[in-house]
Design a protein that fits this description.
Radius of gyration: 17 Å
Strand order of the largest sheet: 1-2-3-6-7
Strand content: 15-25%
CATH topology: Peptide Deformylase
CATH superfamily: Peptide deformylase
Oligomer: single chain
CATH architecture: Alpha-Beta Complex
Length: 202
């Protein structure tokens, strides 16, 4: 778990939107977990938690940094009943969240798939149906160098796939049916113009 409550709470970062070049670049591996990387992870978590639209994951490219670093928090609501028994990864990782994952990768995907509506903090107002493998195997390390190798299902599996896509320059809208991409085209273009204007003003 990210433990920054003992010190000054980090300030949140601006989430970049469609049109920012960081969202379409393949991110570089984290070679060493420095104090700067830890601070970035803390600020990413605050950014995810304090956003107007609550997110369950955030990738470094979404704050304009092309590093293979994500933060996730897929803990279920205390009052919610799981649709199915939790996967080993959910049992192991959910109690430790929020969690920063360094150089996360998916090493296996199940042949079974699931379709679900997705959104993205970098694509505000855009929703789409995305079919993804129902279960995945995650390999990553924590900020403290602990290796994680876990079979993940449910919301955690979907969140991991969504965020790791960001590290490869892929947005969830790319995986939606053509008609949903066409329906979102005008809004996506508006975001792109806004981002280009922001970049020009720097």
């Amino acid at each position: 778990m990210l433990d920054f409550l003992k010190s000054e709470r980090p300030k949140r970062l601006r989430i970049v939107q469609n049109g920012h070049p960081a969202l379409r670049q393949k991110s570089s591996p984290v070679k060493e977990v420095t104090a700067e990387v830890r601070r970035l992870a803390e600020r990413m978590l605050v950014t995810m938690q304090e956003n107007d639209v609550v997110g369950v994951g955030l990738a470094a490219p979404q704050v304009g940094v092309n590093l293979r670093l994500i933060v996730v928090d897929t803990r279920p609501d205390e009052d919610s009943l799981p649709a199915e028994p939790p996967s080993p990864g959910e049992v192991c990782l959910n109690p430790r969240m929020p969690l920063a994952l360094v150089n996360p990768e998916i090493t296996w995907v199940s042949p079974e798939t699931a379709c679900c509506g997705e959104g993205c903090l970098s694509l505000p107002g855009v929703r789409g149906e995305v079919t993804r493998p129902a279960r995945v195997r995650l390999h990553a390390t924590t900020l403290d160098g602990e290796a994680i190798d876990a079979d993940c299902g449910g919301l955690l599996a979907r969140c991991l796939q969504h965020e790791i896509d960001h590290l490869d320059g892929v947005l969830f809208i790319d995986r939606t049916p053509d008609e949903q991409q066409k329906a979102a085209a005008t809004l996506l273009k508006r975001m792109e113009k806004f981002e280009l204007k922001q970049l020009a003003q720097r």
